[in-house]
Design a protein that fits this description.
This is Valine--pyruvate aminotransferase. It comes from Neocucurbitaria cava. Keywords: Aminotransferase, Transferase. It holds the Pfam family Aminotran_1_2. This protein folds into two domains: about 120 residues, Aspartate Aminotransferase, domain 1 (Alpha-Beta Complex), CATH 3.90.1150; about 300 residues, Type I PLP-dependent aspartate aminotransferase-like (Major domain) (Aspartate Aminotransferase, domain 2, 3-Layer(aba) Sandwich). The C terminus is likely disordered. It has a seven-stranded mixed sheet with strand order 2-11-10-8-7-3-4, with helices on both faces. The chain is of the alpha/beta class. The chain has 15 helices and 16 strands. The longest helix has 29 residues. Helix 3 packs across helix 11, helix 4 packs parallel to helix 5 and helix 12 packs parallel to helix 14. Helix content is about 40%, strand content about 15%. Strand 3, helix 5 and strand 4 form a beta-alpha-beta unit. The protein starts with 17 loop residues before the first strand and ends in an 8-residue tail after the last helix.
Length: about 475
């Protein structure tokens, strides 16, 4: 499978390529003027510019940490302000996922990595690089998000095996005061999930924190879409929302029953929140943040790669600190990004309601008042297959989508709700806005053809795909 950015369209269709696969921000919504102003302000002031161009502190630029903490406090409204000590600047969510695994896991002692499925597919290699390629487990979702009872049953089995194997101490990681090896890792995208589009309910978030504490698990959440939210109504009264509708798991862990400092706890906590500027400012900045307890945040900053060169992305971190301090970035998110992406979402959903729902296509969590992110998850009517639709949509209509199988956790697809052969993911962020409805219309044309062929028994494309002819889609 090649990179998503390498996807090319049909070799035979004369229609313009519509890329509903690529999960990148729209080029028209990149804040180049905002960054030009912020970088100019930083570079003209040598008292800021010289530290910005040198090795940064392990935990990252202090001004960015303070300004991120301030924004998070205003957006999530926790009962106490988010402190600078809870924030560690990172090279983005993916880079920090790798750092968290370096500091807080042991490839033997850590029993499993539990991944909510369907899952962000590019995380799999990060887990594999950390030694967990044989320990990845899929956890299905229901309408509230993670299936907590399934996760509990499977963790109990995992614990029983660990006891049988006498797996009681870390085997490869040295004991360090600023780190620890958790017994389990749980990975999820709780809000506007990539790819399932779901938002985990408050009840499930609380249950997950309780479970993580019970079994010494670290829940790593990619909270990268939280700021990109808007009303779900196709005729909204407001185009942007400047307060989060739900607390993050890291907020719940902070306060629930005494938090990480409760009696008997070790102070690290059981959650780590990955934030990123990639979706709201530009992935090329390679800058994000991690939030957790003070102790966990400090542990992240002590990753060997950070200790060697200081915090990653020091220069761009200083640019972003300036953009936040002036309020320019916050205003950009609320005044431009939320309305623009909301318009794109509404245009696509209206097309889905008109073109796809009558054909039997289903959307998850249709009763939400607030939606957001970049993606929409579509479940096809049986017996249509996502891989076949993806191949035929590309070949016949020059529109590309992501087939559901690529979001399956490798090696764990037997349990119901962990395989996604009847699903596809579509993105409304990258493609030109005026092409979104046409992309859905083209998908509808292909689905109708597939249904007609099923009805007449002439679905030769389904047979070909089953034999592997769709393998070159990527």
């Amino acid at each position: 499978m090649g990179a998503f950015s390498d996807v090319v369209g049909s070799k035979t269709s004369s229609k313009k390529l519509i890329n509903l696969l690529k999960g990148w921000p729209s080029l028209s919504l990149l804040p180049t003027q905002l960054l030009d102003k912020a970088s100019h302000n930083v570079l003209k002031n040598t008292s800021i510019a010289f530290p910005a161009m040198c090795y940064g502190p392990d935990a990252g630029d202090s001004r960015l940490r303070r300004n991120v903490a301030s924004w998070l406090t205003k957006f999530y409204e926790p009962s106490e302000p988010v402190s600078e000590e809870r924030i560690c600047i990172t090279g983005g969510a993916s880079q920090n996922l790798a750092c968290l695994l370096q500091v807080f896991t042991d490839p033997v002692y850590t029993r499993n990595v539990w991944i909510v499925a369907p899952a962000y597919m590019l995380s799999f290699r990060i887990f594999e690089d950390a030694g967990f390629h044989k320990k990845l487990r899929a956890v299905p979702e229901d309408e509230e998000g993670i299936d907590i009872e399934y996760l509990r049953r499977e963790i109990e089995k995992s614990e029983a095996k660990a006891q049988k194997d006498n797996n009681n101490t870390p085997q490869f990681k040295p004991q360090r005061s600023w780190g620890k090896a958790y017994k389990h890792i749980i990975y999820c995208v709780p809000t506007f999930s990539n790819p399932s589009f779901k938002t985990m309910s408050l009840r499930r978030r609380e249950e997950l924190v309780y479970l993580a504490r019970e079994y010494d698990a670290l829940v790593i959440t990619d909270d990268v879409y939280d700021f990109l939210q808007w009303p779900s109504s196709v005729t909204p009264k407001t185009l942007s929302i400047d307060k989060a509708s739900l607390p993050r798991l890291v907020d719940i862990d902070r306060y629930l029953d005494g938090g990480p400092e409760r009696e008997g706890a070790d102070g690290f906590g059981n959650t780590a929140s990955n934030g990123s500027f990639s979706k709201i400012c530009g992935p090329g900045l390679r800058t994000g943040w991690c939030e957790g307890s003070n102790k966990l945040s400090y542990g992240v900053s002590q990753t060997g790669s950070s200790r060697s060169g200081g915090s990653p992305s020091q220069l761009t971190a200083c640019f972003l600190a300036e953009a936040l301090e002036t309020g320019d970035l916050q205003r950009f998110v609320y005044d431009q990004l939320q309305p623009a992406y909301g318009d794109r979402y509404r245009r696509m959903v209206q097309a889905i309601n008109t073109e796809l729902i009558p054909l039997g296509v289903r959307l998850p969590q249709t009763d939400r008042e607030v939606v957001g992110g970049y993606f929409i998850w579509l479940t096809l009517p049986s017996p249509l297959k996502g891989a076949v639709l993806a191949q035929r949509a590309k070949d016949e209509e020059n529109v590309v989508v992501a087939q559901g199988e690529i979001f399956q956790v490798p090696g764990d697809t037997e349990y119901p709700g962990t395989s996604f052969g009847n699903d596809v993911r579509i993105c409304f962020a990258w493609e030109d806005e005026e092409m979104l409805a046409e992309g859905i219309e083209r998908l509808a044309l292909v689905i109708r053809r597939m249904q007609d062929e099923e009805a007449t028994g002439s679905s030769k494309h389904q047979v070909a795909a089953a034999e592997g002819d769709a393998k070159d889609f990527w």
